[in-house]
Amino acid sequence: MTTIRLWSDAEVEGHPAVKAVFDDIRTTRRSDFINNFWRALANDPAALARTWDSLKAVMLAEGPLDPLTRELIYIAVSTANGCSYCIHSHTAAARAKGMTDAQHLHLTAIIGMAAQTNALVTALQVPVDTAFLIES
């Protein structure tokens, strides 16, 4: 259960700043669907606008990583942070961008392997090899 009120479309209509962001989300995504993350953030219109602008800049703007790769990274980070909502949301987004079942299974294997080796290195406090350090 949520710890904050999720805004309805009727409530959004009465708040121009929130409505502007929701309208931009709908236009940008070419969908009428506004997910619960944005509905929760509507309680803080400044945070809503700032987060949407940042997400567009990182996830939607042109860049050296293709959209599917960005979603795969988002899934991996969300898994590491234990964010079930984000895992589900970005898995759906990755599937919409063409992720196959085989790619998803390979991704989860990589996430599991990284979690295992990260835990081992942390527990053993293995020093970083000088060959991995970037020289100034």
Plain-language structure description:
- The chain is mainly α and 136 residues long.
- The protein has two domains: 1-61, AhpD-like; 64-125, AhpD-like (Up-down Bundle).
- 68% of the residues lie in helices and 0% in strands.
- It contains seven helices and no strands.
- The chain has helices at 9-13, 16-29, 36-41, 45-60, 67-81, 84-96, 101-124.
- Helix 2 packs parallel to helix 4 (45-60) and helix 5 runs antiparallel to helix 6.
- The longest helix is centred in the last third of the chain and has 24 residues, at 101-124.
- It is elongated, with a radius of gyration of 19 Å.
- It starts with 8 loop residues before the first helix and ends in a 12-residue tail after the last helix.
What keyword list fits this structure?
AhpD-like, 136 residues, mainly alpha, 68% helix
Q: How many strands?
A: 0
- Order of secondary-structure elements: HHHHHHH
Major sheet summary line: none
Q: What is the mean pLDDT?
A: 97
Percent helix range: 55-70%
Number of domains: 2
CATH superfamily of the largest domain: AhpD-like
Assign an overall shape: elongated
Topology readout:
Layout lengths: L8 H5 L2 H14 L6 H6 L3 H16 L6 H15 L2 H13 L4 H24 L12
Helix pairs in contact: 2-4, 5-6, 5-7
